[in-house]
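Risk register update: the risk of archive-format incompatibility is retired. Evidence:
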Amino acid sequence: MKDSNQQTLVAMFCYNHETLTRTAVSQLPPARDYDVLFVDDGSTDETPNVVAAVRGTELIRHPENRGIGAAIRTAIHHARKRGYRFIVIMAGNGKDDFREAPRLLAPLLEDSADYVQGSRFLSGGAFENLPLTRLLLLRVHALVFALVTGRRTTDASNGFRAYRLSLFDDPKINIDQAWLDRYELETYLHVKVHWLGYRVKEVAVSKTYPEKKTGLKYSHIRPFIDWWSILSPILLLALRIKK
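Archived output:
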């Protein structure tokens, strides 16, 4: 069981984004109502040292890069083992802001939702420096999700989310499948919670991309290959090829 009295774990996922991760951890409030876990997915730069230096937090390191799905799985299993009730997941590349975690947590704490999806497109949200190509792909993803599932969400691929951890007691939600190791897991969970009838709520969050002139790489997503990984769970679950 966990040592603290907090109900919530905020998990940040990091991989070879040393400079952007420094920005992300600088936004961590010194006083907070949640515990913090960093999961480093096999970084080969100074990212692990950046997060290890943040006092009052935990760090789990994968010895090699396994994928964001595997990293999220690590955090969920850790949170359940330690007795937390809720988990927030967020990117470690500076796009998500620790200070907005309470927005995602509020519906869970109020018991009005089981799953909270952050949306940069709702009123009050923001998507600073979002590349046009990424915006178009986000729109395609949301459209495919709506057409296949019959459920409309404004930002279906946003990884800034919060879950009630009791969701993972449901045998119909199996996060331990090997095909979910990379970008598939987030879409898989998004589909499952809607189809299984859980209470879903969207809240406004910001998503800040680095300015183009900085030359910083904001994502490890590869065109076509990884976008298929993001989209494919919608079709594979709809066609009952996967479960």
